[in-house]
Queue: 2 jobs
Job 1
Amino acid sequence: MEINGVPIEDTYAEAFPTWIARIIITAVTGDWAVRAATEATGFATSAIGCPCEAGIESTLSPDETPDGRPGVAILICASKKKLKEQVVERLAECVLTAPTTAVFDGLPSAGEKIAVKLHFFGDGYEYQKEVGGRKCWVIPIMEGEYIGEEEFGIIKGVAGGNFFVMGENQMAALMGAQAASDAIANVCGVITSFPGGIVASGSKVGSNKYKFMPASTNEKYCPTLREKVADSKVPAGIRALYEIVIDGLDEKVVGEAMKTGIKAACTVPGVKFISAGNFGGSLGPYKFELKKIL
Amino acid sequence: MEINGVPIEDTYAEAFPTWIARIIITAVTGDWAVRAATEATGFATSAIGCPCEAGIESTLSPDETPDGRPGVAILICASKKKLKEQVVERLAECVLTAPTTAVFDGLPSAGEKIAVKLHFFGDGYEYQKEVGGRKCWVIPIMEGEYIGEEEFGIIKGVAGGNFFVMGENQMAALMGAQAASDAIANVCGVITSFPGGIVASGSKVGSNKYKFMPASTNEKYCPTLREKVADSKVPAGIRALYEIVIDGLDEKVVGEAMKTGIKAACTVPGVKFISAGNFGGSLGPYKFELKKIL
Amino acid sequence: MEINGVPIEDTYAEAFPTWIARIIITAVTGDWAVRAATEATGFATSAIGCPCEAGIESTLSPDETPDGRPGVAILICASKKKLKEQVVERLAECVLTAPTTAVFDGLPSAGEKIAVKLHFFGDGYEYQKEVGGRKCWVIPIMEGEYIGEEEFGIIKGVAGGNFFVMGENQMAALMGAQAASDAIANVCGVITSFPGGIVASGSKVGSNKYKFMPASTNEKYCPTLREKVADSKVPAGIRALYEIVIDGLDEKVVGEAMKTGIKAACTVPGVKFISAGNFGGSLGPYKFELKKIL
Amino acid sequence: MEINGVPIEDTYAEAFPTWIARIIITAVTGDWAVRAATEATGFATSAIGCPCEAGIESTLSPDETPDGRPGVAILICASKKKLKEQVVERLAECVLTAPTTAVFDGLPSAGEKIAVKLHFFGDGYEYQKEVGGRKCWVIPIMEGEYIGEEEFGIIKGVAGGNFFVMGENQMAALMGAQAASDAIANVCGVITSFPGGIVASGSKVGSNKYKFMPASTNEKYCPTLREKVADSKVPAGIRALYEIVIDGLDEKVVGEAMKTGIKAACTVPGVKFISAGNFGGSLGPYKFELKKIL
């Protein structure tokens, strides 16, 4: 299979379940919503070393938010136990503290809810108020009043949807990966949690040489080691590759994001091969076959 | 005292010691360095609820970096013990994974060092190389090779330098605070770790009503509670205020940042009062008297 | 009439016909399309002193463009005669010269067309090619090949849709205007051609004092002259106002943009009054009554 | 000669005299100054088809501007006659109309001055005021008062300093050119007037086939024509090239910018050759030999 002359490997991406909260952050302007959301979703690339995976899912126009102001929706992904703690801390430290923000549940129809009781911060001066049909708490603060919902729906979603963008050199692969990541930003329901949506250094579980390491470089995907390791997965002529990793609300949107991203990558000159990462199907319950989704 | 007709209260900011690492992140373009640095310094507004305080300190042109590429310097601030762990995790998860980044020590002359041994990630394929006079490790990864120093100087700096920007209404106070935060971005050696560099909700230690809360809204600084609480610190005619909180490498740069920020805030129409926060001098060893620094 | 407690004056905006071309600019990434479009639509705020009015109308995802790459649509508005010249010059100087761009007709079903024969630049080395069903010319250039359509539909649209955002002080009015302008950016078919989409200095035709001036400050809308001129249109308590000026493909989208912008402005604290500008109905054939459109 | 292994051709860039005005635009925040400046310097890539060449020269912190607010300096370059007209129109339409802007002369010590009498716009309500030692006019407008100087120093500077960044493929050449353009943005006294600072399509004077064309593609620099034209200047292995064109206040800063840009380009993997453009020395009085400036 080929797109724009770029071969698509006949393989699949393997992905895993994760719990996800979707939070709507609004502000006086879209810029201020983005600033709060960027801080709240920082240090959240990979559940391996970060306390959660998080990112901006979509930008919302005023007619898409409960209070009629511009906003963004963020996804926070973690185990169920960690998820509540991370939503509490990230909203309390990065959004309640940010200028003009309000916060709303982005999954109001989810069956399960977590309670994020920021209103105790009001020390008794807080009160309840309905905004856009949502039951909110109002907390007096320095800038005036913070307004926010405190119950957030959570659902079981999908983490680790992925594909590889391989290039004849590093800049071609990078621009291909950027085109993919930018295109995925238009797909609702998903995030790419790494910086710029792109992973430059993939890992394998454990380490052959350093037994104390939980993860180490995946030498089979390192172009500079192509001649040095057995079973290199780097095709001839490929000098750099990047991975796009996608978390999303369900299988459908993750597949849609993979399709959108791969098609975008294949418009960039110098992109020469597309593949995807899996562990032989032994670990993750979700399989995204490239042939099928494209 | 007045600046541009804005009264400056005769008070002082109280600040505290913190350990600080300064990391230089370079990349193929400045944009990519900023993307990695933004992720690496996210979820890091306040040491109370975040694992550290962090931010982008300055933008570096190619002739200011060891490898001749554009970059940024970030500061990571925490207790000595937490600092090492945070530098390791944030570099490993947010910078090593980001496209085209390299990492260098931003405090090479500091007496104390922390070791951040990312090279074990190379699983034996890593090797050493000198770049711009710095002893680096080269780790084969998917995009090619990651290059970075692994010893980082740390110093005892200053956290919590601050001032309040008070306005006749919320938008005036906000724009005053933004002008202040933007101006401080030009001062070397400091960061403002909150979203957009601005704090919208100040806190007091503990809570009067909810004994389980470690911190709660500082009602004396809430404009909507001005008539409801005793000893409100909100002057008549002030309807919103923001705090700018500054961490820096030493007292001198923090004082310089406060001066620069206050002067900038006072150029914005509708800014009506400047003050600063302290705990009566009982807690922090550093005092920044507004009269003196201005 | 009131929105969020902000009075809406019972008046109307008066607008005029203009010829409009809609050009789709694509590039390897959205950033590069925006850079080319920003240059191509610069120096184009008002037909009074600029050669045309122009702006970015919308951002296009890869599945919305003929070549499957990210893009933007721009509108260029002028008299019929000037329009062709401006489209030629702006595409030739600002888009053909920009990295990785391609250009497509954004009004393919328009009855009238203008021809923009950039292919002569190819000096005989150019050739024709179909891209996404569009008949394009390919021109060899330094970066490789430029691809573009050369027939562009033009239609008679509407220029000068407008409203005023008035605030209790300058920063409130400015943030209200920015919220309005940002919200209008989500409406398809319209542009706001001034910097940031906002006009800070409205004008009247001619001048009372300087007979050689074709236009001068509209003193009736100057807050600092409220007590000095007869018939000031500045309500009591208003210390600053901004005008949002909208050009669009037809009456419907201009009215939609006005509605969207006014609603957004009224969410900003300190915005106190909304009005619109007209010349008594004597000049422009289009009238947008605020009551009706809201 | 080589930099980072990239061969630098032993040639020179040929450049021309131009008249230049340098205008300082300040605003309540740096963002607003940039928005006004971007509009004012748009449609200004090349004097061939645009009314002038213009761009943002540098960003100014509050302590570098007459009114203590953040700002930018722009350069406007044209023939002496066109320069005055362009400064008048661009300030009147794109800066006076923009929120919160003020304007100051950026070449106060220049011997020659042009007068830009915007104050007639005040229709008699204008008055004079000193700001930061500058004699300004204050004009009542909708947002309050516009403040600006009206005498601007102009000097004879240099237009058309240039170099070529050539790559093994398009994305490598593009990223090399972007690294160059970004680095040049740190050099004071110069602009790169094309979108993103980069030229994708170089031209020769006239046309061989179409006699009515004043300029056409420079086929000797087209990689796709390398085998089809005699005397191609495209080295073997080069599949794309970009030109960086620099205008500046004097020979020294243009040479400095060329050096800074070339060094930056040579840090990007896949950049394979650096050259410069000239007309055999017959046209321009300025010669920048690459060997000498590097």
Note: Chain A has two domains: 2-14+157-293, 19-155.
Job 2
Amino acid sequence: MSQTKSMTTKQIVLTSRPKGTPTPEDFRIENVELQAMKENELLLQGIYYSVDPYMRGRMNDTKSYTAPFKVGHPIEGGVVAKVIGSKLADFKTGDIVLGLLPWSEKIVALATGVKKIDATKVPPSYYLGILGMPGLTAYFGLMDITKPKAGETVVVSGAAGAVGVVVGQIAKIQGCRVIGIAGSHDKIKLLKEEFGFDEAINYKTTADIRQEIARLCPNGVDVYFDNVGGTISDAVISNVNFHARIALCGQISLYNSTEVPMGPRLQPMLLTRSVLLQGFIISNYQSRFPEGIQQLAQWLTAGKLKYTETIIHGFTQLPVALIGLFKGENKGKMVVEA
Amino acid sequence: MSQTKSMTTKQIVLTSRPKGTPTPEDFRIENVELQAMKENELLLQGIYYSVDPYMRGRMNDTKSYTAPFKVGHPIEGGVVAKVIGSKLADFKTGDIVLGLLPWSEKIVALATGVKKIDATKVPPSYYLGILGMPGLTAYFGLMDITKPKAGETVVVSGAAGAVGVVVGQIAKIQGCRVIGIAGSHDKIKLLKEEFGFDEAINYKTTADIRQEIARLCPNGVDVYFDNVGGTISDAVISNVNFHARIALCGQISLYNSTEVPMGPRLQPMLLTRSVLLQGFIISNYQSRFPEGIQQLAQWLTAGKLKYTETIIHGFTQLPVALIGLFKGENKGKMVVEA
């Protein structure tokens, strides 16, 4: 397909840096004229757009492991798109690609910024979840940092999220007892009935989470995979065993804090119990992504890993979907289908 | 020497569990009759008694990595003693031994609870310090947990203490830039002039420790060896680099807290900077002690490691010496000579 000069597209722009939880007013939908494709570029039509907790950090103007979003520019994130125009022999119309791309309905992008994905065996949206960053985060965080052994007790917070459901299932594959923490009756039910967690705790209705963890983990906690931080993590960490390992993956409960959050100092306990705590971001493991994808795909096709998505329909729903993450509106991975 | 039936000895007994910082009233000096030696036992005369920060934890009635001291019973700790009576051919009068022993001037102990030390090449008190637990703690905590690389920046808190002076010197041997934190002008001078630290910070006279660390560590902090915890550690940790390593060795600033101390939640920073934090106690490395002692002794005899002790004279000064640790009254390792 050839590109017309006057093609326009909708895009979603950050209008202001949120104070606390983002609101719809922090975003604007714009109609803009699309740049013409240049050499080595592709014209893409977005199909699935990823919304992820880490995006909150990029909305702040602070130095972190990824550059801040720019005010007045489109948000960017993981996108599965269809090629609808190509300047390269390697990419044909109809090919499905994955990339870190702007929130735009149509996108002109360098071919080097995307990779083709095989959407014949699994739905293409899986490459934003179980075969993408969340799945790899679960795999490397659990296996490489916490090294769970059969018979150990593993606790996962944010257990019903995109990363959490995978962590819990991999821990079960390793022969562990797995306890998930999530925020609704439906999620608890899902974790136990669908994903094989041994026990699950609804933190919104449990008066004393610390005591409940002690009750459900009679042998203590050997591994804690932390997606949420804050008081839930305090409760888990007070139950850790000697030589416990904590993978620090997310702190969603604190991402919208406007002041430095305070809490009990954990170091005395981490010291006396010889605990390992390791923060990580998935890009640390970039060189090992193929290993992770291969293992996850194998478990998936063998039926050992189940997967769930929350799909929101409509490109313009992206801001609402992202805001919904911080209210716990997702079960498993949340994506927006254009 | 044969033991008379009516031999008495002084011992120092814990009379009450301290609330906050220990006071002299928490201890009592008693004259007790010494039990007669039985088979496989030795009669010992204490020479050097170790006072160490970890002892504060044993004064509480809480589960930890070592059992609490018992109220009404003698304190116990590292002691270098001379054999003055023996039921075994392997131990002769005049042999010098090291053991975890009661605070008693004379001690009847099982021979299996002590080991002979070679006091011909180094003063016997060194076995309570640089060739004992503090030296091994510095060696394994720094080398095994933080793995410093030449050119990296290492910060040590409690730098003028028994562990800290060794950590800093080993880090220099590894080719690192080393910054120490301590609590007096004299200690700062000692660290820089005697022990070769590149810079040292007096936390008692520095208004903004965080800023001072930033100034003295223009390339950020790669390794933090933490002996103190609390606000000093907050200041260091706010300056850590991506992939920094923190060895959690002591938390002396918090040991006398009567409530759970609160502080800024560090996890968001540890996460985004992919930081490793590992709590440890030296007994984790028991099987590797010979390796550690050999390396420390080699550095010591090669003149690469210097050593300093604060020696307090008089057995009955033990409580005062221990209390003094929490006021920072020691330079290097503090021991009491009977």
Note: The CA atoms of residues 75 and 103 of chain A lie 6 Å apart.
